[in-house]
Amino acid sequence: xIALLRSGFSARRSRHGLWGGPLVIVVALLVILTLGxxxxxxxxxxxxxxxxxxxxxIAAIGQMFVILVGGLDLSIGSVISFSTAILSLDGPAVVxxxxxxxxxxxxxxxxxxxxxRLNVHPIIATLAMQYILxxxxxxxxxxxxxxxxxxxxxxxxxxxxxxxxxLFWGLIAIGLAAKILYGSRxxxxxxxxxxxxxxxxxxxxxTYGIRVDRNIVLAYVTCSLFAALAxxxxxxxxxxxxxxxxxxxxxxxxxxxxxxxxQLSGGVGSLHGTVLGAIVMVLLAxxxxxxxxxxxxxxxxxxxxxxxxxxxxxxxxxxx
Amino acid sequence: xxxxxxxPIWRRLAAVPPAYYVFGLLLLTLWLxxxxxxxxxxxxxxxxxxxxLGILVLGQLLVxxxxxIDLSGGGVIxxxxxIITSRTFPEASGLTFVIMALAIGGAVGLLxxxxxxxxxxxAVIVTLAVSIILVGLVQxxxxxxxxxDVPKYMNQIFDIKYGPLPLPVLFWLACTGVMxxxxxxxxxxxxxxxxxxxxxxxxxxxxPVERTVVMAHVLAGxxxxxxxxxxxxxxxxxxxxxxxxxxxLAVAATILGGVVFGRGEGGVWGxxxxxxxxxxxxxxxxxxxIDEPGKLIAQGLIILMAAILYGWRSKRG
Amino acid sequence: MFDGEPACLIEMQSISKAFGHSKVLRxxxxxxxxxxxxxxxxxxxxxxxxxxxxxxxxxRSDNGRILKDxxxxxxxxxREALAAGIxxxxxxxxxxxxLTIAENMFLxxxxxxxxxxxxxxxxxxxxxxxxAELGLKLEPDQLVSTLTIAERQFVEIAHGIxxxxxxxxxxxxxxxxxxxxVEVLNRSIRQLxxxxxxxxxxxxxxxxxFDICDEVTVLKDGQYVGTRAIxxxxxxxxxxxxxxxxxxxxxxxxxxxxxxxxLELAGFCATPKARPFDLTLHQGEILGLxxxxxxxxxxxxxxxIGRYLPAGGxxxxxxxxxxxxxxANGIRAMARLGLGFVPEDRKDxxxxxxxSVAANLVIALHAEQPAFARxxxxxxxxxxxxxxxxxxxxxxxxxxASLSGGNQQxxxxxxxxxxxxxxxxIEEPTRGVDIGAKSEIYALLRDFAKxxxxxxxxxxxxxxxIGLCDRLAVIHGDTVVAELPAASxxxxxxxxxxxxxxxxxx
Lengths: 320, 317, 506
What we know:
Number of strands of chain C: 20
Largest interface: A-B, 50 and 55 residues
Strand content of chain C: 15-25%
Distance between the termini of chain C: 38 Å
Strand order of the largest sheet of chain A: 1-2
Helix content of chain A: over 70%
Mean pLDDT of chain C: 86
Oligomer: heterotrimer
Mean pLDDT of chain A: 88
Radius of gyration of chain C: 25 Å
CATH class of chain A: Mainly Alpha
Low-confidence stretches of chain C: 502-506
Order of helices and strands of chain A: HHHHHHHEEHHHHHHH
Shape of chain C: globular
Number of domains of chain A: 1
């Protein structure tokens, strides 16, 4: 146990990244918030917190897959908005819900193929995709509205045995991600590919017979699917389709992943780090809300946080 | 058939930046659909709308040539617009505003350049983060409400016309000319060319690579400040959302104009026509009744197509 | 060839391979017996690595075939080679640093549990067994990035054993090992031999080869020279097999007048473990850093421009003591002092391929100017350089990528000559250059020295250094092991100095 904790603070000993830092910050924030205010530790606030945290939580987990192979997905904000828009259309739930995931998977597939086959930089490809999807979303749902299938709303709002339903979403997301990342060949291959990319030995993974391109495409598909899950959750919460709800989500997700110790250059990172990073951001937001900090300032602070965190990660390449 | 396609003339045509074709095509479309719009006065007004974008593009093409990117221009425009319209400095003269704007743009550019060149952070993330900070700051200061009016003299200057040619358009042409001179005639232009082509080879030749990249971002910041001043002159009242979509449009126009990460085949005039193409594109779209969603999709598709084209070409070449 | 011996495990017949225009291997044969340790020797560029990469499935040969136990092998990927029982431990380690030992061992062929998930328990157990077999005290869950180079090498060997390889290819296995590790390695090799496996041992270390190997094959310039039993040869005999090329008359006559020292290294230590040495470069002379590849020549050269931080020593330039340049501004600072550095990789480090000949020629001159000054066209300079160097190009505005290798190299050189450097440091002056251009480049360098310049050059072609230089410093183990006048040097004497020296600290 001690060894496990120590590994979180040493960059050398573990490929899980420096998740010791966010762990300390989470604990510190929990202490500060519980002792510093009376509203934090209330059932109402905590329930609300979990519900508010879930979309970022899920989106960050998805983003982690792509970052581990040294890429980035800037389109998840639009995927989230798009998902809420689809669910808000007229149609039976049995059609709409699978449609959301199918379409999100398609988006991920296109992203991955454009990046690996057509040689386009991940940032450009996903940025372009974000605008295309945004346009499609605004076309489907120009202003927020529409009706979300009951089944989705019921799955999001309320609680079971006193435990808020959103928490289950989170646990499912973590469970799925853990199985994929740590329990499957695909997950190991992602680390292998990312490690090669980060160390400048891009062909290393290939010499082991790993199908690099295919795995990268799958990573983008996974990321989009998690984004769709986050979008579905959001739809259940705001009970409408909203073309703007996903704006800036991608940067928040990247910040959460980076705070959690995952390196943007690839190959180093962890699920628990990402989870902790997302919790840090959510606790910060909660704390700032309780301190009556203007939402505009909060946005600015998040930008500053992102800048600081990525400024600490070093890489050789200059520019894009 | 294959022999026809491999004729050198196709390669020369393929080397021309897409912006020229797109511009020509759109002009033709407009002429066929609404020939009465093709008179100089109307066109002059449309072109004047895109002058802030056109100026911003000058900075973007510089930065993209050294394989970086600048998405913070929108934040700079918003901040400068706020400072001018919020009457924070009620006694300030036009000159003071200009100096303040340049100082802000330069400072933002310096921060961007430092993070990109020295700390080696991804340029997209840095400039987006900076943009978020600036936007958050402005929206907080303005409490989300639009600030005051733009000084009258700025609107007046913006409205000056020489016949059908609006002053802002002339100004844009002059700025483009200056940038062209810098890229073609100055030593710095050679540095940019070298670093964009191969940073390693440039370093071994003695070119100050990091300094070149920092300077590119600083210049882009200054240019964004100039764009901000023009943009402010174009509206009557301050806004909390002005200019935010410009940086990504600038990327699209630049790529369309043949300047893509490290490659500068489009020069300065390719992106110029890229901007004009977008101006026409929006007009044509409005004429055909396609509105905002269509514009967004068009933006994204153009970036994607152009990037694919260059990705494909560099793979072969 | 050998009577009563077990049949050949591996036979490589008539293997030829060319990369573009350069023929790396021509009709090479190699026979490996099971239960033997077979040394593979040859100079830089002899083709040893390429031959083994073909056996390992990394490259495919243009001609010839490979037989295992008499059956034809089709090796089109490293995975297939591994499946055929051929395992390699290359010099460039391909272990992924961010994975554990066990994960590296099984990457690409991970065992799965019944449910479809990774069977990490089995991975761990089998890895532990393989490590124990080699007597290694390493845990399967250790990250490769925490291992020393020696440990990583052993892990790669364990990987080969784990994959039940019948052929193990070891490329310079002891490069990073100390004496104790070498003993461990030798013990493992002997055990593997006893088990009937075939081991290919690529190395330059004579004492090790004579210690552990049974037979040796020598390659020269991509061709097969011969195979001998180790008990039938001597180190000198092997060296004789590796060298012996005709010195062509590509080279201009050497100048007699050597001037005062322009660059002096005193007590220079390339790495903490290397022996310090002194080296002096004089005006008017061409000094070559000879010896086998990768023995420190590049480290020494690049320390002078800040691309490598030496472990110690002093630098004097024109009699003035200087600090070794730093990474950020090293090249610019040294350029201002009249030092030009020509990197070896024309494509990635030297030329800006998409730009014109003119742009590439004058960029170093531009780099001297203040940034916002007017850039002079420098047409006269371009013309002067193109004429003086006889650069064949349709026009100065042609992209340099479309020039031939020789002309490209001339453009690269021209850049520094245009800047009027006093000291020229060149890595691989004629790599990928045709014969005609080679002799032109040699003449240029000699003229440069005659006019008062000084040249420091490294090259993998020893013959080139002998013909071109006035003096040779033989580098081995990151230090100078011998200094010879080039006029009386031979390939044999240089190689002997390198291979039989005690330059390396154990």
